[in-house]
Design goal:
277 residues, alpha/beta, 5 strands, 9% strand
Length: 277
């Protein structure tokens, strides 16, 4: 079983009732998992955008005497760096970090029940809303592109603005029951607001996010975490992309005519010479 810093933090935080401020600290620590054992309370507070006493209360909520005890715990359980990892350049380290993220995702998927439940929800929603703004727009677009081959009515929401709530309301009036959201850092406030609106409108929100403590968690009925890589100037999102493909597979299992639709599309594409093979 992988023992990545992010995975250890996820296990440490799970099962605790955390306040929104504490979830924000947890999310920050997961995002900076490799650095977390070495951050002072002041540094962590600054990174999370909270007060230093909030960091102390967070550590106490996890069962520690204070933040120094939490930091000592994180240092004690941190595995020693291998000589191979130390010799790797920054590009190799980014790839290795993504491999660890994928390994952790594989472990999470050892229990397929959440993904299977999500697949049933997505398959049953007519229309199906797929939301992703800014950094997550490409994830939402990729899912929607493939989903449209098997689902009869997929509506992509990849642009924000005042029309976003209107489009959610229109989908609800048309019979939508579920919204799938891809939420990646940095998390736009508009996404959080859109999910709150969707829930208020009666939609079930399924979210793929970079951690279970992301800001969108409070407005998600089913949150599926998939970590992003943070070693480069811009985040890498191999795990969220793969989780999206897994959700497509689970959704197809809930659509009895999915295979027939795929065959129909392939026949039409061949007749039109759509692809160069």
């Amino acid at each position: 079983m992988t023992d990545s810093p992010a995975a250890r933090l996820q296990v440490l935080f799970e099962g605790h009732r955390l306040t929104p401020t504490q979830r924000r600290i947890a999310h920050c620590m997961v995002r900076r998992a490799a650095d977390a054992p070495f951050l002072s309370s002041v540094e962590l507070a600054e990174l999370a955008g909270v007060s230093q006493p909030s960091v102390t209360r967070f550590a106490v909520a996890l069962g520690f005497d204070g933040y120094p005890a939490l930091r000592r715990h994180l240092r004690d359980v941190a595995p020693a760096e291998s000589s191979g990892a130390a010799a790797a350049n920054e590009y190799q380290q980014a790839v290795e970090a993504e491999i660890e993220n994928l390994r952790h995702l594989a472990e999470v998927l050892a229990d397929p029940a959440p993904v299977e439940r999500a697949g049933r929800l997505l398959a049953a929603s007519r229309p199906l809303l797929v939301l992703g703004l800014r950094a997550a727009a490409s994830q939402a677009y990729g899912f929607s592109y493939f989903a449209a081959k098997v689902h009869p009515d997929v509506r992509l929401l990849d642009e924000g603005g005042t029309m976003l709530a209107d489009r959610v309301d229109a989908a609800v009036r048309a019979g939508a029951t579920t919204l799938l959201c891809f939420a990646l850092p940095r998390h736009p406030r508009e996404v959080v607001d859109a999910l709150a609106h969707a829930q208020a409108a009666g939609l079930t929100v399924v979210t793929v996010a970079d951690s279970a403590f992301a800001p969108v968690a409070a407005h998600s009925d089913l949150l599926l975490p998939a970590a992003v890589g943070t070693g480069l100037a811009f985040d890498t999102a191999c795990a969220p992309m793969l989780l999206g493909r897994v959700l497509l597979e689970a959704m197809c299992d809930g659509l009895p005519d999915a295979q027939a639709r795929l065959e129909e599309f392939d026949a039409g594409a061949a007749a039109r010479g759509l692809f160069v093979e």
